[in-house]
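Example protein was shown:

_____
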Amino acid sequence: HPFPIGDRVTFCGKKCVCQQCSHSLKKDQPVKVLGPSYCAGCSQEIKQGQSLLALDRQWHITCFKCRTCGCALTGEYISKDGIPYCEDDYHTQFGIRCKGCSSYISGRVLEAGGKHYHPSCARCARCHMMFQEGEEMYLTGEETVHYFLTAKSAI
C-alpha cells in the first residue's frame, strides 16, 4: 500500500515499512540505519520531511519528476536507464507502436518480421483469428499468417 501522508517509514535493509506494519517487525532483527541519504534528483541531503524510494534510490518527493516535461510523478511512471518519465513522454521518445492499431504498446508485445503488435491485435491475414500464446506466426510477403498443414490424399 502507499505510505500514508505524515507517517513514519522504517527502512529495513532492502524494504521500507510503514508505521503500522513496523509494529509487526521482529524485535530481534536490528533496523539498519544508513548514513545520510542523498536525493537522486537534486543530489542534496534528505534531512527532514518525506522522501520516496524509487528506482532503487531515494528522492525528495518534489524531485521525483519526469526527465522530459518536469511534471511530478505521483503515481505511475516508466523508467529507462534509471531515469523516470511520465507515460506520454516515455512513449514519445522510446515507445513502440502496434502495427495493428497504431497505438503505443505497454506490456506484452508480439513481434513478427520486425512488426510489433499488442497480443489482441495480432491476427492472421487469412483467417482473421488472433494468434494464441506460443503459436507460430509466419510472414508471407507483408502478411502475417498461421502455419497450416494440409493433408494430401494418397492416389
Notes: Confidence is low (pLDDT under 50) at residues 30-34, 149-155. The radius of gyration is 24 Å. The first strand starts at residue 9 and ends at 12. The CA atoms of residues 123 and 130 lie 4 Å apart.
